[in-house]
Amino acid sequence: MSTPAALVTGGATRLGRHFAESLADAGYDIALHVNRSRDEAEEVAEGIRAKGRDCELFSCDFLHDDVGRLIEQVTQRFPKLSVLLNSASAYTPAPLAETDLEMLETQFRVNLFTPLLLTRHFASAVDTGQVINIIDNKVAYHQYPYAAYLLSKKSLAEMTRMAALEFAPRIRVNGIAPGVVLPASQRTSDYIDWRIDGIPVKQQGEPDHLVQALHYLLNNDFVAGQILFVDGGESINVEGRHSENYPG
């Protein structure tokens, strides 16, 4: 009961799984949020328990369920809850011209409203703690083919800064903006190579790069309200047009 605990949303798959496992390695018991990926979540939980840490699954549909109830359930099970990691995400690409209300509602509910409400209830339930929001390095751009998704993530970045001010000093709030780390399975090798060519350090990221960022934010108590871009410099690689690069 004295072990610190972390709630990881979307912790059954992809980056969420890496974050949950690394937090367990760091000595946290894990409250693993799950919606549809139940089998994957059970596998993650089994692995965390094998590390000697406690892990329990908590079901919540962020489109329909009360997320405040999720915090209640977690704190009842893990009274020493001290970390909220918002990793769950909804992603449907579409330009503004093809974005309808349902798409907006789905992506904003999962990517902004849920982290905001979870942060609110977390801050009410714990004495001290940390919130880390997983954002996206796309927030540095205006990529309209991902309109609803990107607008929701840009809003999450701003919410991160607002919450850092409102809940300090009890709660530190920060974000991580990953770059090319775990590309979608449908991405071709040619596409990945093309993306890497636009990254100043000329390499694809690994989940461990994000895990290192996570632990930096957890362990440095003088960092608050920051969005840590872990993308090899991709998000700053926008030189713009000027007289010296004019081809004419």
From TrEMBL:
**Superkingdom in the source lineage:** Bacteria
Q: Does the keyword rRNA-binding apply?
A: no
Pfam family name, one: adh_short_C2
Ordered alphabetically, the record's keywords are: Oxidoreductase
Q: Which InterPro entries match?
A: NAD(P)-bd_dom_sf, SDR_fam
User: Which family, according to the similarity comment?
Assistant: Belongs to the short-chain dehydrogenases/reductases (SDR) family.
Protein name per the record: SDR family oxidoreductase
Organism of origin is: Vreelandella janggokensis
Phylogenetic lineage: Bacteria, Pseudomonadati, Pseudomonadota, Gammaproteobacteria, Oceanospirillales
